[in-house]
Give the backbone structure.
Amino acid sequence: NAGVTQTPKFQVLKTGQSMTLQCAQDMNHNSMYWYRQDPGMGLRLIYYSASEGTTDKGEVPNGYNVSRLNKREFSLRLESAAPSQTSVYFCASSEALGGFNEKLFFGSGTQLSVL
Amino acid sequence: KQEVTQIPAALSVPEGENLVLNCSFTDSAIYNLQWFRQDPGKGLTSLLLIQSSQREQTSGRLNASLDKSSGRSTLYIAASQPGDSATYLCAVITGANSKLTFGKGITLSVRP
């Protein structure tokens, strides 16, 4: 029962470096999401993919790009990391976007520090 | 714009106490409301989901109620245990094809 798997769990970057956070789900879900969680700010949606082949901006997309590689995988890329991107990143998936019975399943998170 | 509020931000209770966690939202046109649990350094686990047409959902010692007209939900935890210590977040979906809006969570500590 892997569910939603994120890698890496921890990462330290220097300002200006790039990296990609990987996410994969094995529940045959259509929709996938990337959130960031910051103290005092709660969870904020960065990007989401309602279905394979589509991606859309969430609340805080600046500085990020995403790729829905296939139905299972959804990656988040930081092209030029900034200290403001220090956060805990969560990937999530659901059967479909915005349904009455939509339940989200979360990965265990990536703790990212940008120095 | 939907806003979800959870007050207080932190709560400490002795073991065995029955407790209520509150959640309020500004736009009552929701599709569903979910309660999540988050342990330190971990992801979120969905506890209960209440569809807009439902009034409550129960799972073991947990009971969540929903009053859409007043924009409120409560999570009732019976006979609290130290293992219930975690952060509890509520989130709502507002409208078709929309995404979850989260509250900031209530950090619960149950003292032995």
